[in-house]
Amino acid sequence: MSQIHVTTKINGDTTEYLCDPEETLLDVLRDRLALTGAKEGCGTGDCGACSVTVDGRLVCSCLTLGAEADGCEIDTIEGMADGEKLHPLQQKFLEHAALQCGICTPGILVAAKSLLEKNPSPTEEEARYWLAGNLCRCTGYDKIIRAVMDAAEEMRRAS
Amino acid sequence: MVRIWGSLTSATDGQADVEIEATTLKELLDGLSEKYPAIRPQLQRGVSVSIDGKIYNDSWFQPIKPDSEVVLLRRIVGG
Amino acid sequence: MIYEVPETVDSAVALLSGATGSARILAGGTDLLVQMKSGVVEPDLVVDIKRIDGMKSIAQEDGGWRIGAAVSGAEMGEHQALCAAWPGVVEAMELIGSTQVQGRATLAGNLCNASPAADSVPAMVAAGAVVRVAGPDGVRDIPVEEIPVKPGKTSLGKGEFVTSVFLPARPVNSGDAYLRFIPRTEMDIAVVGCGVSLTLDEAGTCTAARVGLGAVAATVLVVEDAAAALIGSKADDTALDKMAAAVSAACKPIDDKRGTVAFRTHVAGVLAKRAAKIALARAQG
Amino acid sequence: MPLDDQTPGQKPGEARQFKVVGTRPLRPDGIDKVTGRARFGADMSAPGMLIGRVLRSPHAHARIRSIDASKAEALEGVKAVVTRADFGAGDDDVADILDNCMAGEKALYDGHAVAAVAATSAAIARKALKLIDVDYETLPHVVDVDAAMKPDAPVLHEGLSDETVPDGVSQNVVHRVEFGHGDVEAGFAKADKVLERSFKTAATHQGYIEPHACLATMGTDGIADLWVCTQGHYMVRNTCAAILGIDQGKLRVTASEIGGGFGGKTTVFLEPVALALSRKANRPVKMTMTREEVLRATGPTSSTSIDVKIGMNKDGKITAASADLRYQGGAYQGSPADMGSMTAFAPYDLENVKTVGWDVVTNRPKAAAYRAPGAPMAAFAVESVVDELAKGFGLDPLDVRLKNAAREGTKSSYGPTFPAIGLEATLQAAKDHPHWKAPLGPNQGRGVACGFWFNFGGDTCVSLNITPDGTVTLSEGNPDIGGSRASMSMMAAEELGIPYDQVRTVIADTGALGQNEVTDGSRVTFAVGLATIKAARNAKKVLCERAAMVWGIDPEAVEWADGCARPAGDNAGKFPPMSLKEIAAIASNTGGPVAGHFEVNAEGAGVSFATHMVDTEVDPETGAVKVVRYTVFQDAGKAVHPAYVEGQFQGGAVQGIGWALNEEYIYGEDGRLQNPGFLDYRIPVASDLPMIDTVILEIPNPGHPYGVRGVGETSIVPPLAAIANSVSEAAGVRMTDLPMSPPKVLAAIQNG
Fold first, then answer.
1. Which residue ranges of chain D lie beneath pLDDT 70?
2. How many domains does chain D contain in total?
3. Domains of chain B
4. Residues of C in contact with A71 (CB under 8 A)
5. Chains near B, with 3+ CB pairs < 8 A?
6. Which residues belong to any copy of the Aldehyde oxidase/xanthine dehydrogenase a/b hammerhead domain (chain D) (predicted)?
7. A4-79 belongs to which CATH class?
8. C120 near C96, Cβ under 8 Å?
9. Domains in chain C, ordered, with CATH?
10. N or C: which end of chain C has fewer CB within 10 A?
11. Does the pLDDT value for residue A63 go beyond 70?
12. Judgement on whether residues D434 and D495 belong to the same structural domain of the protein
């Protein structure tokens, strides 16, 4: 079993790695690159905790092979804040107490950012459906949705 | 006076309220065990005790006043 | 396992034909990786077709639409002309999984996974989709309903793979729709799915119809009695009730963790009626 | 120990004015958690680390004749294989836990661990599992609680029934318990109507998003370290030490951030196995569960079968009530049938009441605690019957509950007389809320239900240290599962009179503090909060002494107010106040570092009540249920950080919605779990739900200096019943079987 050499850009930085052919992008991020912000909640694409974007497209990194990322640009939760400045979504999640345990939070933030890039003015219903693939067991989603809507409003005002 | 739960009354000749001389939780549990040996397995499995509406699990020397309401409960668990 | 990324259809066919062990196509991977994770499949060869020319394109052809085998649901949903032409097929595709899954899952993959509950398949059946298959003997076009033969099994031979799905030119005054039933609002596999496509004449009489049903038999069903109930009618309540009855009669479901025989049979009729009403409204413009 | 509960200078009954408590500051661990750098169970590595994997039984019930691991051991990269033979007899106290972590003579459920390997990679470990030959003799199995009670049912354990179990039932019945008072038969005879109904609830899983994970390092000398996601690392230490036969003091356990628990992480599964593998391989071993393993082998709660009988008069007064509650707790004793029996009628003031609970074993994973264990199912059954009776008499369901509501002085159904409680306040708030009067649309129904939970305290240690620059570090021993670091920092800041951001709370490992009870029983804000306040008071006493030394006056003449030591009154002398910073700066000159600590078994937690109100809409053609509007009314005693209190209310309600509508363990004829994944174990997703409105009531708990009651568990008690009452109204037919999945609702509608 020979390993595959992959060259990617992760959070803007060119990154090379070797991975086994059957290894998922999630395993590569977590076990090879020490980017443990993406979580494995299910490994089957049902919980969204491993959400990242590949070439700007929101995906589950558990349903993507590490080998497929060759030549792609990957963005993860670790790249969401701009230096010491939190992304408005991150700030609003803190202000609204939109996390309890925090395990789903990285995936939800990545997914919500992707939503607002595509649709800066989502309705509550659009936000709920967009995030339906991100399971949260603690909050009942109420404060998460409020934080996303509030962040959207702030980002619209700022732009 | 200690109130015990229903299924323990088989160990107390059918009495739901039993009289034990005790000024602390430990004296109460020791007294129960001595007076009603058949209740011992349940005490060993663990109990909680309500004293005047507050629940105690372990504190031997929790005082019991003469007019306190004391109720033996199944050991309370949580999640 | 060996992972290959061919750049032409021919080299993909060569790889698949030459494989000594089990071989799998990787497009979106949203079924394949789940099966690999659970150990249901342990492929010796995985052929990633995303770098083959045309696999990621949506192109107009003879008034219809050719959708490459690696086009994701999200890409279909963003293609306005395709959405306008075949809203039922697109909405069926977009129901599959989460936003994240939409970023990867494909029409061709949903078809070749050969699940009787695949959402896009009843819609494609209703649309009369034709699938292009490449293989050692060249290229052939076959009706979509001939691909799945039983749960988890397709009619594709060794070395063959689906390169595109073709949705035919849409006659005027036509509309299609797909509805499925799931216990939640998202993230479930269809307990019943129903796709309806119909065409009206100037007077509003239905001149053509196709009804596809999912999750009520070992493969997706084409329900001709249901279509017949619509054709020649104005798709009024009487015709719709007749169609719903035909749909329920066609069901050969099983009891399982997702639903009962009685439930699936009843709800298939309910959904067919609701889907037909949407298709009708679309046909009426 | 007896606690002096009053805040100094505060008269009983007088509301205290808070400066920090009751505000909504940002949580101190927040930035870690929104940037992805917070470290959860699976996020830790160690040099030379191996990966451990567990082999699990595919059979629901089987005798293990033999296990041959020689081929696995011979595989390159495999460094250790363990089976039950690698564990000693262990203490009796942990016998069931050990057997659940690693099967002994029998595999008792689908997913039961039978062996484990540690290898240099996950792929090799997985391959090695396939090389282990287990010779099983399959046995008949039983997974349903009523079936398991029958005399001819397959028996899991011979001779397990205790002295409370009557003759004529299966040995699978472990224990019978009875509560109540009065004469129920006489009470039923006086009723205008007696209604008897039977109910079923499916087993549900806690459904935390983070699978169990740990990293173990153990040497042959018994010195060991464990990193683990758990609700209680002290419990993990004590349990693992007992199982492995090592001293508790030699095992240091560090709690990772925890990705949800809800009761499911109050015991051990992988941890003793990882330690045993590490001991054998003499290398660090990391283990994580897959989601399938989580669902097959951890959690869940009991499935239940419950009969309820209630007599009511036309005016809504309940004359008598009884319930028979049968709970299966999986393969080992300990289902929460007793908790169900105690809580079932707790919201009511009843003259005649009787409950009987049955603890039954079946071939399912051992039930773990789940948020108010045992109570939601009992409340579902009781509140459904109360609702049906009330509506049958044409009475307002809230009025009927108010008429029968337990209040201060009520002798509860489980024995004790209630002190001041908040049930009536929640009912009255519900009645006064606009939700109660809002119009309903077609196919919609509105349901209400009440719920009760005990809450408790337990062993707790807090150490509060003042740094040389006058800021504060607070060490506590309970994993922060939902914002408790923030609450502790707030209470310490409140007590010391300093800003919130001057206190940092950390979760200490087991080497740093004494014993701490698990994060369960809604105890943390109550018990750890109490210990934090007391530790701060101890620190203040030292701070006052230091100021007294500087001023040359008697320490008794110094008081602490607004963050400063001050002379207590004019007689003490005139000195400018000394701030915490000033005293901290001269700590070395006045005797050394300043700290306060407090260790206590925090007994005397206050009970808590909630009332939930929910509107649902039922699709009469498909049986689909949509939750349209939801409002929670709950007594929090005192909400320290209201945003996180609301979060507990909302989270409990939504877990209840899942339980009521779609979540269930589905077993096949073969006794195997058919839905071990989030695809078919259907927890609510964002698009399923409306906003969850909350009303926080504050009836202070006299057992806590600030009046805090636990809030985490009560919120899951009413929703099952509230939703059932709502759906029953919307569908026009009484629903008695959970979950109310669409096929069941449609069948009920069609069968009338």
1. 1-15
2. 3
3. 2-74 (3.10.20.30)
4. none
5. D
6. 35-140
7. alpha beta
8. yes
9. 1-51 (3.30.43.10), 174-284 (3.30.390.50)
10. C
11. yes
12. no
Quick one: closest CA in A to C102, which residue? A59
Which residues are registered as beta bridge partners of D737? D200
Q: What is the pLDDT of residue D90?
A: 73
The highest-level CATH class for domain A88-158 is: mainly alpha
- Give the separation between CA D135 and CA D81, rounded to whole angstroms: 17
Structure tokens at A3: 């390993």
CB contact under 8 A, D369 and B63: no
Distance from CA of D342 to the nearest CA of B (A): 9
What pLDDT, on the 0 to 100 scale, is given for residue D5?
46
Q: Does B14 touch chain D (CB under 8 A)?
A: no
Q: For residue D481, which residues of chain A lie inside 8 Å, CB to CB?
A: 100-101
What whole-number distance in Å separates Cα of residue D717 and Cα of residue D734?
20
Q: Do D209 and A109 touch (CB under 8 A)?
A: no
What count of Cα atoms within 13 Å lies in the side-chain half-sphere of residue D233?
31
In a domain, D167, yes or no: no
Q: What is the pLDDT of residue D134?
A: 98
Whether D559 is covered by a domain: the verdict is yes
CATH number for the domain harbouring residue D84: 3.90.1170.50
Specify the long-range contacts of residues B10-16, CB closer than 8 Å, at least 24 apart. Answer: B10/B38, B11/B36, B11/B37, B11/B38, B11/B39, B11/B42, B12/B36, B12/B39, B16/D181
E-strand ranges in D27-61 read 50-56
Q: Are residues D478 and D360 in the same domain?
A: no
Confidence band of A100 (pLDDT split at 50, 70, 90): very high
| D208: nearest CB among A34, A35, A137 | A137
Residue D462 sits in a domain of what CATH number? 3.30.365.10
Query: D602, D617, D648: which is the final residue of a domain?
Result: D602
Residues D135 and D252 in one domain: yes
CA–CA separation, C59 vs C69, rounded Å? 12
D683 domain residue, yes or no: yes
Residues D435 and D366 in one domain: yes
Domain boundary among D602, D627, D646: D602
Q: What is the 3-state secondary structure (H, E, C) of D123-191?
A: HHHHHHHHCCEEEEEECCCCCCHHHHHCCCCCCCCCCCCCCCCCCCCCCCEEEEEEEEECCHHHHHHHC
User: Measured between beta carbons, which residues in chain D are less than 8 angstroms from residue B71?
Assistant: 414-416
Distance between C97 CA and the closest CA of chain D, angstroms: 10
Q: Which domain holds residue D69?
A: 48-139+210-259+265-297
In chain B, residues with a C-beta closer than 8 Å to the C-beta of D1 are: 59, 61
Asked if residues D36 and D116 have their Cβ atoms less than 8 Å apart, the reply is no
Based on the fold, state whether residues D496 and D553 are members of the same structural domain: yes
pLDDT at res. B57: 86
Is residue D676 situated within a structural domain? yes
Q: What is the structure's pLDDT at D569?
A: 83
Cα D281 to its chain centre, rounded Å, is 35
DSSP H or E run through D383? helix D375-392
> Is the backbone of residue D199 left (phi > 0), alpha (psi -120 to 50) or beta?
beta
What's the predicted TM-score (pTM) here? 0.97
- ipTM of predicted assembly, 2 dp: 0.96
Shared domain for D114 and D61, answered yes or no, is yes
Of A21, A43, A132, the CB nearest to C98: A132
pLDDT over 50 at C78, yes or no: yes
| Cβ D59 vs Cβ D107: under 8 Å | yes
Pairing of strands D558-561, C206-214: unpaired
Cross-chain CB nearest to C1 (options A21, A58, A64): A21
Whole-Å CA distances, D36 to A40, A140, D43, D211, D252: 13, 21, 10, 17, 26
Between positions 48 and 77 of B, the ones with CB within 8 A of D are 48, 50, 52-59, 61-63, 69, 71-74, 76-77
CB contact (8 A) between residue D179 and residue B79: no
What pLDDT is stored for residue A1 in this prediction?
57
